[in-house]
Specification:
The protein is α+β, with helices and mostly antiparallel strands. It is built from 41 helices and 16 strands. The protein folds into 5 domains: 11-205, Beta Polymerase, domain 2 (2-Layer Sandwich); 212-359, Up-down Bundle (Four Helix Bundle (Hemerythrin (Met), subunit A)); 365-444, no CATH class; 469-649; 715-913, 2-Layer Sandwich (Alpha-Beta Plaits), CATH 3.30.70. A hairpin with a 7-residue loop joins strand 11 (756-761) and strand 12 (769-777). The relative contact order is 0.05. Mean pLDDT is 85; it is low at 361-370 and 916-924.
């Protein structure tokens, strides 16, 4: 709530009410009729509003004070309405001595009533009258509204009597809340006072608990709609968890229950400390500053911090790049920390309210009837509490023990206990962190049999987690500015621990059958849980977070009571926690060298089991739509093949054996379908070992039927699409004569159809035919499944292969008229890596860049221009970033090893990655200019010092 008692500075520079009154009076001299009078007033009022808004905007860009900005906007509208009301009363509908039925008060409600008016927010008005309004009231109300609308204001309104307001407030909590925050603007003040007094007596009294329940239910519903997490990376600053609406809920509750006009008065109720009141004020001011910037930037009532506005907001609010974090990441971390503060304040306030209600005797039965103890902690209302407020200050280790006890017995913590933890965090020092008993309690919580994530999240929200493990505290509320990571680093880590626990308990057997099996063979649960905790612990430190995280593990694990062997295992897992997913998604699993290199890295079956489990939970915890059956299949294949090599078989032997087994299964299946032995032998001879190893049995059987059908027709091109809703992909199979540039032409047609390639298997059969499989998704990440789109895809592929269309030209035309991609706001440095060591028979090219329509086509076309054969393509998309890997050979079927040729390939691919889109800088604020100048000065001084050395 903005303190409306604080006066706006230099008010007359915003609007001078007396001068405005005189201008309106002079404009209507000799004019009669409402329409003519309003027409004369309109340009004067528009000019006054434009001047006032410009003054407020300039002040805000100078001082960044969101509270002052919304207060000044309210002042401008207040004065405008007052002048307009007086002018109407004087020149159109005078009533020197109004009768009872002519009394009217103009009242602000909603955010405007709280004294909070963002630059693009609506204005909500209540026109208050007595029981039987005279005709003059309708005339005044209509003239005010039409004039306000004509000058461009967005006004919501209602016209009610005092009795109507009270009656509706009793039956509708929304109306009740609106009346709770009414503010007098102009007119009959006694009428407004009557409403306020009657509202407190007839609506509020005795309904305190009902109001709180209604507001909390409303809040929970709102959070559910917004994703039920304050750590989503495109948060809604108004309605999201930890946003302004949560602060409003605190204010409404305080006002309804205690009758306070300002949250600072809550200190007298014993609910909040002065420090917590200050946190409330800082959180509110920050959120209001962000919201005002957002409204000015969007020029509309925008409430979401979408990726495209985050960099500009960070720039305007002077968040500059620093080592370990960009300006936008620092800005969003501040936002999430504020959202966390809002959660803390909500919990503390509710604890104070519950205590107050008990003091007032509003509970039906005395609390003493429900009290008992659990391992030394009293149970209050089925929740674990503390003996007295200072308990944790005098016994700091009990802060950890109460969470351990609550987890083991499935109990919730009482708000009083959580508040006491927050207020005793200062007792956690180096000696406390080194206490073996404290570390044992923490590890017990981390490795709890059930729901450790729930306990850890609560510890994180009250600040205990980050205080006890300072390295974790460094990643609290830390975001990565990309479209791949859905949650902040701390939330991602806690979710990963929760998923690991559910896998261990057998709750995710269907989703993760292999991980669910091997986790039971893991020799040390603690190693796995601690590695999951630490795998991203060093993000945002300006270096390789895997390497830095391994160093953190070597320092922290002994403190947690782990021996040297387990410590080294944890450090190894943190260092290589991306190795398995990178190998599975970026390398050819049918290449024996891929598997052998992976085995050489992992070395032991125990590490393989641990790494599989860690990889699965890491990917699953990134976001709700990141894990799919395609990734599951790749990880599963890599695990089994690595295990096979570790058991004594060579990668090559295992490959030959698996290929022969796959051919035998296919032969048996085709025989059952009525194929002749000769036809089976002919078909089996078409493919090499890699083809039979790359595909599952069902796909091999479908391909056999497709090839047989195609050979019986004269059509040179055969297409087949199969929609797999479980994997959220559409499988496109293309069978035709192979020729240079085939993959590029297919990729171009797919891009023109609006599909995205998520995987591609390129197979050239021994008879010179190409049998290529693409996994496709639509722009929303679902299967490319609409019949009209599939029909268009088929037409485009035929046209592209026939040379009837030129994909590059069509894509350029389409880019000019298409809506800007959401990925456009991100910068991904183009990178081309060429590796001649990853495979014995192929050159492996990895390409990184920003995703956009047609990129795969541009890359494959560039490879064709370099006269390269694309043998395998591994296509991965991580939000806005693509990581495409191509296994290629030269025209003679050999690796590309000539340095000059490799340089040409790099240059061609880097050119294909370039994008001509230009970025525009937002208009800098005065604060942003100062911050930029300061940063530049520091950089210049650093360079000068280095030159001197």
């Amino acid at each position: 709530m903005i303190d409306t008692t604080v006066k706006v500075k230099q008010q007359r520079r915003i609007v001078d009410r007396l001068t405005l009154q005189e201008e309106l009076a002079a404009a209507v001299q000799g004019i009669q009729g409402e329409a003519e009078v309003r027409a004369a007033w309109l340009p004067i009022l528009k000019a006054a509003l434009t001047k006032g808004r410009e003054e407020i905007r300039n002040r805000f860009f100078d001082d960044q004070d969101g509270a002052e900005c919304v207060r000044a906007n309210c002042f401008l509208i207040d004065q405008t309405i007052r002048v307009l009301y007086d002018a109407i009363s004087a020149h159109l509908y005078p009533a020197p001595n109004p009768t009872e039925s002519e009394r009217i008060a103009v009242v602000a409600v909603g955010g405007y009533g709280r004294g909070e008016l963002a630059p693009q927010s609506d204005i909500d008005l209540l026109f208050l009258h007595q029981r039987k309004p005279a005709a003059r009231i309708d005339q005044v109300v209509e003239t005010i509204l039409y004039t306000l609308w004509d000058v461009g204001l967005k006004v919501g309104h209602s016209t009610r009597s005092v009795d109507e307001c009270l009656r509706q407030a009793k039956s509708d909590w929304t109306i009740c809340t609106a009346l709770l925050e009414t503010r007098y603007i102009w007119g009959d003040k006694a009428l407004f006072s009557e409403l306020r007094t009657s509202f407190r007596k007839t609506v509020v009294a005795g309904r305190e608990t009902d109001f709180l329940d209604a507001k909390l239910a409303e809040r929970d519903d709102r959070h559910e709609r917004m994703g039920d997490s304050r750590y989503v990376l495109e948060p809604n600053i108004k309605d999201g968890k930890g946003g302004l609406r949560d602060l409003h809920t605190l204010y409404w509750t305080a006002k309804f229950l205690y009758g306070v006009d300002d949250i600072s008065q809550m200190t007298t109720e014993g609910g909040l400390t002065k420090s917590e009141i200050d946190r409330f004020g800082r959180a509110q001011n920050f959120l209001w500053s962000v919201r005002c910037h957002l409204h000015y930037l969007a020029n509309r009532p925008e409430e979401r911090l979408t990726f495209d506005v985050q960099p500009e907001l960070a720039h305007r609010m002077a968040y500059t790049d620093r080592a370990g974090g960009s300006g936008v990441e620092r800005f969003m971390r501040h936002y999430f920390l504020v959202a966390k503060d809002v959660g803390d304040l909500t919990r503390i306030f509710l604890a104070a309210f519950e205590a107050a209600q008990k003091r007032r005797g509003l509970l039906r039965l005395p609390a003493a009837l429900f009290r008992r103890e659990m391992e030394g902690f009293p149970i209050d209302g089925q929740r674990l509490s503390i003996p007295e407020k200072k308990y944790f200050r005098e016994n700091p280790i009990e802060m950890l023990r109460i969470f351990s006890v609550a987890n083991r017995h499935g109990l919730e913590l009482h708000p009083d206990a959580l508040t006491a933890v927050t207020r005793a965090l200062g007792k956690i020092n180096a000696a406390f962190r080194d206490d073996p008993a404290a570390n044992r309690l923490f590890v017990d919580i981390l490795c709890a049999d059930e729901d450790p994530d729930k306990t850890l999240r609560q510890m994180n929200e009250c600040g205990l987690f980050g205080k006890f493990v300072p390295d974790f505290g460094r990643v609290v509320a830390q975001m990565q500015y990309d479209m791949y990571h859905v949650y902040t680093t701390d939330e991602h880590t806690i979710r990963a621990i929760g998923i690991l626990n559910r896998i261990e308990r057998g709750l995710l057997n269907e989703d993760h059958p292999v991980a669910s099996k091997v986790i039971r063979q893991v020799q040390s649960r603690e190693v796995l849980y601690v590695a999951t905790l630490l795998h991203d612990i060093a993000k945002g430190r300006g270096g390789d977070h895997s390497e830095l995280g391994a160093e953190v593990a070597r320092e922290l694990c002994p403190r947690l009571g782990m021996n040297a062997e387990d410590t080294e295992t944890v450090a190894w897992l943190v260092l290589h926690h991306l190795a398995m997913s990178m190998t599975a998604t970026k390398r050819d699993l049918e290449d024996p060298k891929t598997v052998q290199d992976f085995v050489d890295l992992v070395q032991s079956p125990e590490r393989l089991r641990l790494l599989l489990c860690l990889t699965v939970v890491d990917i699953r915890a990134v976001g709700p739509n990141v894990w799919n059956n395609w990734k599951a299949t790749l990880l599963r294949e890599l695990y089994w093949r690595a295990e096979e090599v570790m058991s004594g078989a060579s990668a090559s032997e295992g490959r030959i054996r698996r290929a022969e087994a796959a051919k035998a299964r296919l032969a048996e299946r085709l025989e059952k379908e009525g194929w002749q032995e000769a036809d089976i032998a002919t078909h089996l001879a078409r493919g090499g070992k890699g083809y039979y190893l790359a595909l599952d049995d069902d796909t091999l059987a479908r391909h056999a039927r497709l090839v047989r059908s195609a050979n019986g027709r004269t059509d040179e091109l055969t297409l087949e699409t199969r929609i797999d809703m479980d994997k959220a992909v559409t499988e496109l199979t293309v069978y035709c004569t192979d020729h240079p540039g085939l993959v590029a032409r297919l990729s171009g047609a797919i891009a023109l159809a609006g599909a995205t390639v998520v995987d591609a298997k390129i197979s050239t059969m021994k008879d010179g035919m190409a049998l290529d499989t693409f996994l496709l998704q639509d722009a929303e990440g679902g299967a490319f499944a609409r019949p009209d789109r599939l029909a268009r895809l088929s037409v485009l592929i035929r046209q592209s292969l026939a040379g009837e269309i030129k994909p590059m030209e069509e894509l350029i035309k389409r880019a000019k008229s298409a809506l800007p991609s959401r990925t456009r706001v991100f910068t991904v440095a183009p990178r081309v890596l060429i590796d001649n060591q990853a495979s014995n028979s192929h050159t492996v090219i990895e390409v990184n860049g920003r995703d956009r329509p047609g990129l795969l086509y541009k890359l494959t076309a560039a490879l064709v221009e370099q006269r390269l054969q694309i043998v395998l393509a591994k296509v991965s998309t991580y939000g806005e970033q693509v990581v495409d890997v191509f296994y290629v050979k030269d025209t003679f079927g050999m690796k590309v090893e000539h340095k000059g040729k490799l340089d040409q390939i790099r240059q061609a691919l880097r050119y294909a990655l370039l994008d001509g889109e230009e970025k525009t800088e937002p208009p800098p604020t005065k604060l942003a200019k100062k911050a930029l100048a300061k940063t530049q000065a520091k950089r210049a001084a650093r360079q000068k010092a280095q030159a001197a050395e």
